[in-house]
Amino acid sequence: MQNQNLEIKNILNFTKKALNKKKVLASDFVFHSDDAENHKVLVLTRCSVKSIRKYIDSAIKKGIRGVILDKKIPNNIIANKLPIFFSPFLNKYLNIFLSELYDHPLKRMKIIGVTGTDGKTSMIHMLAQAYKLLGKKVGIISTEGNGIYPLLNKSMYTTPRNDLLYKYFNQFYKKLTDVIIIESSSQGLDQGRLNHINFDISMITNITRDHLDYHKTYLSYIKSKCILLNMTQKVIFLNKDCKNNKKVLKIASTKAQYKYFDNNYKIYGHKTKLFNSISTQYNFSLLYSFLKYIKITDKDIIKIFEKIKPIPGRNNIFQRKDSAKYIIDYAHTENAFTSLLHDIYKNYKKRSNNLIVVFGCGGDRDPHKRLKMGKIANKYCDIIILTDDNPRREKSINIINDISKGISQKSKIINLPNRKLAIKKAINISKKDDIVIIAGKGNEDIINYDSSIEKHNDIKYLEYLFNEN
Prior knowledge:
Helices cover 39% and strands 18% of the residues. With 469 residues, the chain is an alpha/beta fold. Helix 9 (245-251) links the parallel strand 10 (232-239) and strand 11 (257-261).
């Protein structure tokens, strides 16, 4: 602790000298060259030497006055005599430094972390709604946005950069927030964005296969999730039905208490009004277990459950008079896609003509799952419209062909890479009592292609087509 304090003091003294100031504020630092301004000090961590050169050259043009690095670089990498401070401390302890800059903004708030392969975003928003109904002010960090719930700013990342996180933490502190709920992605945990945060409570919704393009192995993916558990002080909620619990318990080293939930909960026979999917059942069961833990009565839990609303893009149902029923969902993993289609088949097939699904798979991401996604669609659906998700650097038709290999009944397939045309096609061929599932993107606002970003939102486009006809 003494060494940390000394290192922070040295960084602040360097900054005072570089900026010719007697007192240093958090606003005197920037953590990305895109944010560089005149009379600021740039902090760069976890960057390659090649990237450091590029970032510093860009920052110099914007008037940066000093640079703090977590690694030593060759003397000739910077042309002018820009002051540089080398601090290996920042590589591991950046959040401790940021906490000091903002005067420890998390010191009086309850911190809850939620991770998992599927359902974590929905769980966070259900928790936020519950807390708000209990009269608490809630700050959230999630895929669907960051801010004081429900007024959120859109974000490109599930778990933002360290410096952006602490800006939000500072805002939450100033606005007297009671609780912060953080969606903790596997990449964010692995990259240290949440290091040295003391979580009071953490939750794992489930762990199945995902993000192996980044983690390389399934075990590495599970280990990244366990980082959250190791930072948890009081209670950890685990899915009793998750097959990976034994691995989690073996890897995690925490003194926190474990509590388990499954997809069964009963409150005097009460049932939720939301679409009755497996993932929804698990999330309500987890929310019930949590509310009981904080000593909320069943009577009050029923009142809360009756007011819970789904977030955009998760189990959203749309229907016009005399039309098919449309369900938009973010499901893009094998587990989530299976649960979605199984539940829809179970709940609606006897009352419907056709199950029509519109979906694709992301490019540059786990190509092995594409065949499996095709098999899942083939098992439950009568018509399968294959389209773009986020092709990125891959050709759309190659991704579609990979999915098609899992579909044994080729007569079911309609290939339409353009997602707007695919959704329009689904509307045109659907009839009353059909179910149309639009899966994979939920409430996302873009489709990512190699050389361009196309604006698109499944919900907004479906509503546009409804209004057009």
